[in-house]
Amino acid sequence: MTTALSDAVASEIRGHLNEVCAQIGVDPESASLVKYTMNAVFVAPPFVIRLAAGPHAATLARRVVSVAASLEQVGMPTVRLASGVTSQPVFSGDWVATAWQYVPTANDEPMPVDLAAPLRALHSLDGLDVPLPRWSPIEKFRRRLDAAAALPPKEAGELEQWSRTELGIPVADLLRDLHLRCDEVEEDLDRVVWRLPPGVIHGDAHTGNILLPAPGDGAAARPEPLLCDLDGMCIGPREWDLVPTAHGATRFGRSAADYRNFVDAYGADITKWAGWPILRRVRELQLVTSTIDALAGRPDVAHELAHRLRSLFSEDLKATWRRYR
């Protein structure tokens, strides 16, 4: 496992994984956890299994299954649902899973430029033959904050201790501050004059959500990159899908040259647009609220979130953030 988890959390997730594997005919002993941010992602050849919990997990999983099937029908460069798994999503108690075809990947690390062609393809769509929600990022942030405020006593106590130790403030003050930031940026978003027409967007288009398939034996051409993690698919401003690459160059240590290669390939530089500072703030709120209600038993995620929040509160725009593992 590359993700550090407490024994209790690891045991809980493994139990649900075992039940899901039994339902889809996969050996759970072959499964390895590769990532756990909002979903626990396991490679379990020939599939990848994504496990999630929470009050909205089942609804989201059902929508993602429909969206993935629709994207496949129109030939989009996206990951495919697991062949042979006839009924999805798959349930284990209050957890829900989706199963995907495992894609052997190249050894090369995905770069921002690898996002350009898949995003251009996706952005050619005005809609799909399944309903997509409207882009509403602040609503998601508030939902996470509300969930953090309503945690069970044990998890709430751990969050309180973490907030006081790492940030020097009670959780109530932390959540109040983040709610105020949500209010402020929501007002700013209402004043944004968008340059591009709305359409189908990925919603979280960073290099961690792109796969570089390994070339087949004797293949001369490199296979096209594939977009994965379709949870954020919606109808919204196409500019939003350009934010993570720009933000990666300003927050996650990506080079200016890497970003320029993406700009040249996609054909737009969002940092030259008047709306960029607002969308950067939205992105940063997204990245400090996405795990705030699920820190228990995840020390690495908790440590990184504290670092992000300290730099956000001190308005330190030069502090480098690390991706969650």
Automatic annotation (TrEMBL):
Entries under Pfam families matching the protein: APH
Keyword entries, A-Z: Transferase
SUPFAM superfamilies xrefs: Protein kinase-like (PK-like)
Domain Aminoglycoside phosphotransferase: 46-276
UniProt-listed InterPro entries: Aminoglycoside_PTrfase, Kinase-like_dom_sf
Highest taxon above the source species: Bacteria
Gene Ontology molecular-function annotations: transferase activity
Protein name: Phosphotransferase enzyme family protein
Source taxonomy: Bacteria, Bacillati, Actinomycetota, Actinomycetes, Micromonosporales
